Amino acid sequence: MPIMQWTHEIDIQGDVVTKRYVTKQLVDGHEGVAEREWRALTLLAEHAPGLAPTPIAFHHAAKEAVEGAVVMSRIDGVPLRGLPDPGAHARALVEAVTELHEAVPRAVLDTVPVRPWQVEGLAAVVSGWCARWQPRDPLADRAVREGARWLEGWRPGEAGATPVFGAGDGNLANFLWDGSRVRVVDFEDSGRSDRAFELAELCEHVSMWVEGPLDVGVEVARHVELTPAQARRMRGCRRLQALTWLFLLSGEGPRNPPGTFARQVERVLRALDA
Hints:
The chain is an alpha+beta fold. It has 9 helices and 10 strands.
């Protein structure tokens, strides 16, 4: 039976997975998610075999409103988000992410489109959210106010920017532990990116801390090797990602435990003070 997701459905038949995109997702003027997924699987099959599913076929959409389907191999592994102690695999997670980042040769990477929601575009969106924020409670209002003030003065520039191939999604559910290594799935938002930004997105994703007392992002950061310029850039990108999640979680909703938004407010204030 297909499993419904936000943008797609997944059908598993033995060792073959078919990912059918049920709506056309054009983000920020970029190409659709199916094309990005197929490109990622094709590039990784050539330059980092075994890290991700093997691409089998790409089926173009029969209707303009949808995007078609990507057929790939099924890979073994348990999502890190489902493990009782995902932090124990932080080093293996960083190794997998580093392999992903460094897999595509620079000459090839330069031809890959930039992934959606890069630093400048995301910063502009978050600034707009700050401007439209309606008073809610003193601590959340303070986080938004201080975040907006920081964003006004932040100029990331190119210092510490290292071009990499990025998955574009830091959800722990996309990283599978197969007993010896971590492998990666879900490349809908993949493309050419920046290492500091990708690591910041990974460390600040809500899945890193929402389901237990351990902040897996802290464990991940301990295993990451960065130059001083990359570390400074990552610190700024983590603030941006923390602010992004502040707004994404502001509606609470059923997907996360009660109190998640309040915890995110505290994370933003800590990030801005760091």
